[in-house]
Prior knowledge:
Elements: E1 2-7, E2 12-19, E3 22-30, H1 39-49, E4 59-63, H2 69-86, E5 89-93, H3 95-100, E6 106-112, E7 117-124, E8 127-136, H4 137-140, H5 144-147, E9 150-153, H6 163-169, E10 171-172, H7 188-197
Parallel strand pairs: 1-4, 4-5, 6-9
Antiparallel strand pairs: 1-2, 2-3, 5-10, 6-7, 7-8
Amino acid sequence: MKRLLFDVSTNVMFVGYSKDDILVDFSIRIATKDHAKYLVDRIDQVLRRNKIKLDDIKEIIIGYGPGSYTGLRIAVTVGKMLAYTKNITLRTVSSLYFMTSGYEGKIAALIDARRGHVFSAIYENGKVILPDEYRKLSDLSEQPEYKLARTVFIDDRNFEINPKRIIEHSEVVENIDDLIPNYLRRTEAETLHDQKSNT
Length: 199
């Protein structure tokens, strides 16, 4: 089965093409806040390089969070658009899992969430030990499982992809219209709005 996989939850844009559970080709782009300009183009580049069309793709798997608000919205919007217009099965997986799926052993996957907080989870050889959550880094560092894990702060130098694990861990989106990113925290605008409403 031919699959398209992508994640844009961090400054690393990863777009991959897999056949069955083998990663055939991929493209990586390092960015700050301009993933929106390049995701569709990178998908097109990967498909063209492999002489395949979007119509040949049977499944799309996206990392749908947690991570960058903008990145997550881009991934979910593009995933939904392609799946709907081409009638392709859409699947989702944690971005933390997606970007650390290739590591062996016990891994603490972290994405910087600012102000001393991280989006984090702990995995061991593909299994979830500690689920995705928005946590204070100081609290996480006190947990026994964290102390026994290798910390991977996901960035342009720290990520490993394993398509087989991503496929196995992903879930089918039954209703594309209902899919929203897995933000795990509220936006600053929402928090400020509530604070003003309560005063």
